[in-house]
């Protein structure tokens, strides 16, 4: 996960000279007494595939609607290509949006749906036709041009919505849960298709989603949001490997959180006193902790090794019994219950067939991980 | 068996409440007037059996329909009714659409109340409501008094007993029939479609014209037919609010029936009116069907 | 089981009592009787009276010609009565059941025999004239103090009508009364059934047509009383009602009724018993009750119409019997004319002419 993007050298956010395409500056948005966005500052760069990720009600949709022009910030400003767009109506912005419901015009056929925006620009007929054909080709919809939206499948509708919003070659394309209505298999195929189209057209994409896997797959950077705040903005791999908070660690993927008290051992190493009658755990952290400060060790299940015998060399070892097994086909997640009742999840790849699985329910097992496997978080 | 019964019920309904009465009216339209009870001949005497029936048939003719073509009163009345029905339908649409639009755009919690307000007038007798308009529109009526008081006019406007009053009465009476289907169409309209149109470069007005109007078209068509069809044969509103110059087929029909006591010609007028109405009704049905297909 | 039998008996008892309670159904013009008389009839005879009203001869006639109206007593006007008798809609009266018929006034009997030969089918209830109702103040204001308020000139001369248009003129929507009126004005036989004679009415009416606000047979009562209009050609009793309403309202409107100096149409509302009346016996009892001098006087005192009952005259109040608008003096009486029903073909000509005048088509 995340390898695809992190292997490219495209990282304008690390370049202090780069001009962001979109600038949120101290933006606050209130609906009556409810604060949807709270003093939020964010830069998004050209050609980025930027994901706004969070649970429903976190403010991600409000962010997108402010970009589209359907809402205006209560305080602060939003700039697009260096220009404040606060009072620019939606139809005057070089921004297009792909709606969650697709919002295809049911009374127009596919061709006319795609041509709708171009017609508003009074584009000459020849150019218009060429552009629509280009879009149909890009989204592989040539055969369906004369059909009405209710005569095609959900996946095809999704592509029409994409073609329609791309037709005007916007500087910025907003995608509101673009794949939410598709089934899982189609969703995965479409994710790659989206990335492909984004790369081909060179358009800046901002996607809103509650599906962390989708965000991780498609985005160059992910912003995790909660209750109107940005919790963390980073590349997918950093979000996953180096969450800055328990919230982010917990929201992205599966994680074990172990609460305890840190005490410095030396260098960047800390020992964690976490439960009565259990040995201390060891972890490294770049951020420093005071002695006795409450800390949370976040460790991904796949970084926990499960063995029948106590491993010879390991920074952290605990013993427990297999409480539950979640079989996912390629992976299995073991829920191991420690003597004090804590459950720790460990994940292994199923390289063997299921009949030859090493552990079963109630087996005593040992869990181990290295000092660098987890992340030590203050909150 | 059950299926057959289910199909038979609507047909029995149609037969009993439409085809049989229509057959009777058609039969009268082919008869001749007489001073008798009932005031036309021939009447069917079933006691004489088959011969009686044949004698009865032989006396029927299309004389009354020929008569309708000979006096220009009839086609002028049909034409004038069509004109009044058409103009009132347009006015009802112009008044009703914004109201339906406002209702569909109103906050969710207000809508039942607004809907109630639209339907509320039905709780009072239609006649009383038309009489109320006579009170409002007369020379000494509320409207003229208010306008005089405001200084908008110096002399009372002659409204009552004019075609203007008829249009006001019709628009008022039939407004709910226009509002409800349009509201139903607008209520179903996905708000994101309007946002999509704006997002793609439409101004508010363009979005309304290019998206809202076409998508509420089924409601507009249904509402227009629901107004047009009954207004064409309207009798009460023009006779109460209209002047003597308001020529409508409903009034002509009344005069044939009551003043001339000519039931056969009155029936012929009614048969022709029905034929004129069948055309829009068929169009309406087809529209409904198309809509149903589109929704599948 | 016992309970069931009991209920069943109770229901049967109810049903039989309902069937045996005698009832009589009367269909009369609206606002045409003192309602206390209805209660009095029920008290005197023990017959249940069901009283229903209509407001146009045409509606009544349609019910009569359709048959099976279910009414025992109906009240058509003379010309309509005559046609309905021809159609066989009524039964002959049994004079032995109408001892009060001796009260009838021979002057009126003479005239009604024109519609109902020998008065075999009907008795006269009320009669009146068709004339002019004027808002005295307004008409004087428009036409001056010497306005011809009792003459057809007021409503048939365009120069007068032109001025009156501003304050509003209503005509009866009754061609069978309005056309004879114009013929009388022209000096023709008002009862003419000749198409060419009838056609002479058209130019006169067409000339004043633009100044007529409405043709209607009942709205003028309120319109006159409220001051919405200043002149109406209408029925005597209706205009007198308007006069009283205006007086009661104290709105400064003064209404007066005058028969035309050129001669007014005299009309008669006759009580008759439909051929298929469910209870002709009770119908006779009702007629006899109405023929009683005291009852008839009460009715006239209430509705301000003259009746055909000689014996009731001493019992009438002076504002009825002494009002020449209700009981015209001898000279005016001589001037009144009556009409007979048009044959079907002529009726069509008259209706068509009327439609043309009203709508211009």
From TrEMBL, chain A:
Residues 22-252 form the ABC transporter domain. The keyword Hydrolase applies. It comes from Falsiruegeria mediterranea M17. NCBIfam families: potA. The complex is composed of two ATP-binding proteins (PotA), two transmembrane proteins (PotB and PotC) and a solute-binding protein (PotD). This is Spermidine/putrescine import ATP-binding protein PotA. GO terms for biological process: putrescine transport. It comes from the Bacteria. Part of the ABC transporter complex PotABCD involved in spermidine/putrescine import. Responsible for energy coupling to the transport system. Its EC number is 7.6.2.11. Keywords: ATP-binding, Cell inner membrane, Cell membrane, Hydrolase, Membrane, Nucleotide-binding, Translocase, Transport. It holds the Pfam family TOBE_2. Belongs to the ABC transporter superfamily. Spermidine/putrescine importer (TC 3.A.1.11.1) family. It catalyses: ATP + H2O + polyamine-[polyamine-binding protein]Side 1 = ADP + phosphate + polyamineSide 2 + [polyamine-binding protein]Side 1. It is an enzyme of class 7 (translocase). GO terms for molecular function: ABC-type polyamine transporter activity; ATP binding; ATP hydrolysis activity. GO terms for cellular component: ATP-binding cassette (ABC) transporter complex. The keyword Cell membrane applies. The gene is potA_1.
Automatic annotation (TrEMBL), chain B:
This is Putrescine transport system permease protein PotH. GO terms for cellular component: plasma membrane. It is found in: Cell membrane. The gene is potH_1. Residues 78-284 form the ABC transmembrane type-1 domain. GO terms for biological process: transmembrane transport. It is a multi-pass membrane protein. Its main location: membrane. PROSITE patterns: ABC_TM1. The chain crosses the membrane at residues 12-30, 77-101, 113-134, 165-186, 265-284. CDD domains: TM_PBP2. Pfam families: BPD_transp_1 (PF00528). Keywords: Cell membrane, Membrane, Transmembrane, Transmembrane helix, Transport. It comes from the Bacteria. Belongs to the binding-protein-dependent transport system permease family. CysTW subfamily.
Automatic annotation (TrEMBL), chain C:
GO terms for biological process: polyamine transport. It comes from the Bacteria. The keyword Cell wall biogenesis/degradation does not apply. The keyword Signal applies. It holds the Pfam family SBP_bac_8. Gene3D superfamilies: Periplasmic binding protein-like II. GO terms for cellular component: periplasmic space. It is found in: Periplasm. Residues 1-21 form the signal peptide. GO terms for molecular function: polyamine binding. Keywords: Periplasm, Signal, Transport. Required for the activity of the bacterial periplasmic transport system of putrescine. PANTHER family: NORSPERMIDINE SENSOR, SPERMIDINE/PUTRESCINE-BINDING PERIPLASMIC PROTEIN. Belongs to the bacterial solute-binding protein PotD/PotF family. This is Putrescine-binding periplasmic protein.
């Amino acid at each position: 996960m995340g390898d695809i993007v992190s292997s490219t050298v495209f990282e304008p956010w690390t370049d202090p000279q780069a001009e962001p395409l979109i600038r949120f500056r101290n933006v606050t948005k209130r609906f009556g007494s409810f604060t949807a966005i709270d003093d939020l500052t964010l830069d998004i760069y050209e050609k980025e595939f930027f994901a706004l990720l969070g649970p429903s009600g976190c403010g991600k949709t409000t962010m997108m609607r402010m970009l589209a022009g359907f809402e205006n910030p209560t305080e602060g400003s939003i700039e697009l290509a260096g220009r404040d767009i606060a009072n620019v109506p939606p139809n005057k912005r070089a921004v297009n949006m792909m709606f969650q419901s697709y919002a295809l015009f049911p009374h127009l056929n596919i061709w006319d749906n795609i041509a709708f925006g171009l017609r508003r620009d009074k584009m000459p007929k020849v150019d218009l036709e060429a552009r629509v054909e280009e879009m149909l080709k890009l989204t592989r919809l040539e055969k369906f041009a004369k059909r009405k939206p209710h005569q095609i499948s959900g996946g095809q509708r999704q592509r029409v919505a994409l073609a329609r919003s791309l037709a005007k070659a916007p500087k910025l394309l907003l995608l509101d849960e673009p794949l939410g209505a598709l089934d899982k298999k189609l969703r995965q195929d479409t994710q790659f298709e989206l990335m492909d189209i984004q790369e081909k057209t060179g358009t800046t994409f901002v996607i809103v989603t509650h599906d962390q896997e989708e965000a991780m797959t498609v985005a160059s950077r992910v912003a995790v949001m909660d209750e109107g705040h940005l919790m963390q903005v980073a590349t997918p791999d950093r979000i996953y490997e180096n969450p800055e908070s328990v919230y982010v660690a917990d929201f992205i993927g599966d994680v074990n959180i172990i609460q305890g008290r840190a005490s410095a051992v030396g260098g960047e190493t800390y020992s964690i006193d976490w439960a009565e009658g259990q040995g201390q755990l060891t972890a490294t952290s770049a951020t420093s902790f005071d002695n006795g400060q409450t800390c949370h060790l976040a460790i991904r299940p796949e970084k926990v090794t499960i063995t029948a015998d106590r491993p010879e060399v390991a920074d952290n070892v605990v013993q427990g019994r297999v409480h539950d097994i979640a079989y996912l086909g390629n992976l299995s997640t073991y829920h191991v219950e420690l003597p004090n009742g804590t459950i720790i999840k460990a994940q292994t790849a199923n390289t063997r067939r299921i009949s030859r699985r090493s552990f079963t329910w109630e087996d005593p097992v040992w869990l181990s991980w290295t000092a660098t496997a987890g992340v030590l978080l203050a909150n | 068996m059950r299926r057959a019964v289910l199909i038979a019920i609507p047909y029995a309904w149609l037969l009993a409440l439409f085809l049989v009465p229509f057959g009777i009216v058609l039969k009268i339209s082919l008869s001749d007037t007489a001073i008798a009870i009932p005031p036309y001949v021939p009447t069917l005497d079933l006691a004489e059996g088959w011969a009686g029936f044949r004698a009865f048939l032989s006396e029927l003719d299309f004389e009354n329909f020929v008569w309708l073509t000979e006096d220009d009163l009839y086609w002028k009345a049909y034409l004038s009714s069509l004109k009044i029905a058409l103009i009132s339908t347009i006015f009802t649409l112009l008044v009703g659409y914004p109201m339906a639009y406002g209702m569909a755009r109103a906050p969710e919690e207000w809508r039942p109340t607004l809907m109630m307000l639209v339907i509320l007038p039905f709780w009072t007798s239609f006649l009383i409501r038309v009489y109320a308009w006579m009170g409002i529109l007369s020379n000494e009526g509320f409207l003229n008094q208010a306008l005089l008081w405001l200084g908008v006019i110096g002399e009372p406007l002659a409204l009552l007993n004019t075609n203007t009053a008829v249009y006001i009465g019709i628009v008022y009476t039939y407004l709910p029939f226009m509002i409800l289907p349009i509201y139903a169409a607008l209520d179903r309209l996905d708000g994101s479609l309007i946002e999509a149109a704006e997002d793609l470069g439409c101004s508010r007005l363009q979005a309304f014209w290019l998206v809202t109007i076409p998508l509420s078209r089924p409601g507009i068509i249904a509402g227009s037919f629901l107004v047009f069809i009954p207004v064409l044969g309207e009798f009460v509103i023009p006779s109460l609010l209209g002047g003597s110059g308001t020529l409508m087929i409903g009034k002509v029909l009344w005069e044939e029936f009551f003043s001339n006591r000519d039931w056969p010609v009155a029936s012929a007028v009614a048969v022709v009116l029905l034929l004129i109405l069948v055309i829009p009704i068929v169009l309406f049905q087809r529209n409904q069907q198309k809509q149903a297909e589109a929704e599948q | 089981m016992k309970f069931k039998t009991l209920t069943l008996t109770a229901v049967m008892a109810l049903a039989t009592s309902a069937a045996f309670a005698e009832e009589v159904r009367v269909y009369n013009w609206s606002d045409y009787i003192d309602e206390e008389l209805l209660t009095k009839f029920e008290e005197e005879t023990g017959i249940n009276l069901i009283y229903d009203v209509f407001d146009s001869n045409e509606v009544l006639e349609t019910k009569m010609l359709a048959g099976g109206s279910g009414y025992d007593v109906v009240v058509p006007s003379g010309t309509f009565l005559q046609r309905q008798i021809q159609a066989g809609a009524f039964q002959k009266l049994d004079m032995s059941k109408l001892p009060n018929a001796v009260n009838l006034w021979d002057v009126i009997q003479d005239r009604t025999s024109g519609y109902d030969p020998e008065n075999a089918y009907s008795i006269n209830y009320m009669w009146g004239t068709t004339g002019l109702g004027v808002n005295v103040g307004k008409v004087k204001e428009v036409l001056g103090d010497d306005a011809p308020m009792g003459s057809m000139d007021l409503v048939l001369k365009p120069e007068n009508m032109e001025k009156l248009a501003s304050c509003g003129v209503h005509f009866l929507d009754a061609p069978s009364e309005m056309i004879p009126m114009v013929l009388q004005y022209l000096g023709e036989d008002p009862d003419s059934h000749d198409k060419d004679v009838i056609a002479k009415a058209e130019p006169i009416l067409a000339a004043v047509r633009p100044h007529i606000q409405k043709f209607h047979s009942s709205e003028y009562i309120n319109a006159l009383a409220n001051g919405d209009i200043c002149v109406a050609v209408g029925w005597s009793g209706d205009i007198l009602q308007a006069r009283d309403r205006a007086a009661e309202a104290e709105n400064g409107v003064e209404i007066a009724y005058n028969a035309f100096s050129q001669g007014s149409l005299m009309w008669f509302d006759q009580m008759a018993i439909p051929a298929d009346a469910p209870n002709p016996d009770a119908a006779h009892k009702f007629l006899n009750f109405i023929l009683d001098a005291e009852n008839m006087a009460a009715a006239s005192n209430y509705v301000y119409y003259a009746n055909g009952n000689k014996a009731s005259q001493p019992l009438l109040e002076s504002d009825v019997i002494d009002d020449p608008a209700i009981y015209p003096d001898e000279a005016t009486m001589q001037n009144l004319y009556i009409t007979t029903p048009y044959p079907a073909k002529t009726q069509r000509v008259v209706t068509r002419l009327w439609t043309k005048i009203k709508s211009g088509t």
